[in-house]
Amino acid sequence: MNIILLGPPGAGKGTQARRLEKERGLIQLSTGDMLREARTSGTEMGRKVAAIMDAGELVTDDIVIGLIEEKLKSGEGRGFIFDGFPRTLAQADALEDLLARHGQKLDAVIELRVDDDALVKRISGRYTCGDCGEVYHDDTKPSAEAGKCDKCGSTNLKRRADDNPEALKTRLMEYYKKTSPLIGYYYAKGLLHPVDGLAPIEDVARQIAGILDRIGSP
Ligand code: AP5
């Protein structure tokens, strides 16, 4: 089974993708995580990617499509959760082609619906474990022991460079201009499943589980 988690910055895509990976054995493919890794490579491409991400703009289609293609080659068979990809119509078309080339198809697009005020609160309170990637929030999901990851025990907890009010404004603008047209695109293909992303994390997970069970998850 291959699914997309679609939604604006802070909608909860990463949080839900990590749960699905654990619960359903699917592989999370987060282009944001891949690009954050690429920016530390010390290459010219890495420096360009870092500047674009810090400003809150979208990285070019060819770079992200190339990253996804590499991952699809290496993890065939288990099914994927696309987290933060596709973000443009060109990326959506490329994904369809790539999956078809691997004899696969897209099974569902889960749209996480959240209003903008909630997004600002979520982004401004978020921190993540730099070692295992677990996602926390100052108010809604703090780590049990301050400064220590519940999952792996690391003290390397950090905040993202693009989680500031100025970059968030640009990220939201990019979402509404370039990514939100995908909602209509996938609706027309009969693949769209909206969920109430404002509900607590457990409730959102239950809504998604209900959808996947209905359409026949592994
Ligand atoms: P990316 O890393 O994909 O960031 P994003 O889309 O902005 O999404 P976020 O990671 O900010 O949020 P999320 O929806 O995963 O929310 P989370 O679960 O963390 O992309 C970063 C950048 O990379 C882009 O700006 C762009 O430059 C580039 N990029 C990436 N992909 C690209 C592509 N395909 N094409 C071009 N450029 C690309 O949750 C947020 C917070 O809320 C957390 O603290 C969490 O604990 C909390 N929370 C989650 N769910 C709930 C809930 N239900 N109730 C209360 N709190 C909740």
Task: Throw out a few tags for this protein.
218 residues; alpha/beta; five-stranded parallel β-sheet; three-stranded antiparallel β-sheet; 9 helices; 49% helix; 15% strand; globular; binds BIS(adenosine)-5'-pentaphosphate
Ligand identities: BIS(adenosine)-5'-pentaphosphate
Give, in order, the helices and strands. EHEHHHEHEHEEEHHEH
Q: What is the percentage of strand-forming residues?
A: 5-15%
Task: Summarize the amount of helix as a percent range.
Answer: 40-55%
In order across it, which strands form the biggest sheet? 2-3-1-4-8
Number of helices: 9
Folded structure, characterized:
This protein has helices at 13-24, 31-38, 44-55, 61-74, 89-101, 116-125, 165-179, 181-188, 201-215; strands at 3-6, 27-30, 80-83, 108-113, 126-129, 135-137, 157-158, 192-196. The chain is an alpha/beta fold and 218 residues long. A 5-stranded parallel β-sheet has the order 2-3-1-4-8, sandwiched between helices. Strands 6-5-7 form a 3-stranded antiparallel β-sheet. A hairpin with a 5-residue loop joins β5 and β6. α4 (61-74) runs parallel beside α5 (89-101). The N and C termini lie close together (7 Å). The model has no long low-confidence stretch (mean pLDDT 93). The site of BIS(adenosine)-5'-pentaphosphate has 36 residues, from α1, α2, α3, α6 and β6.
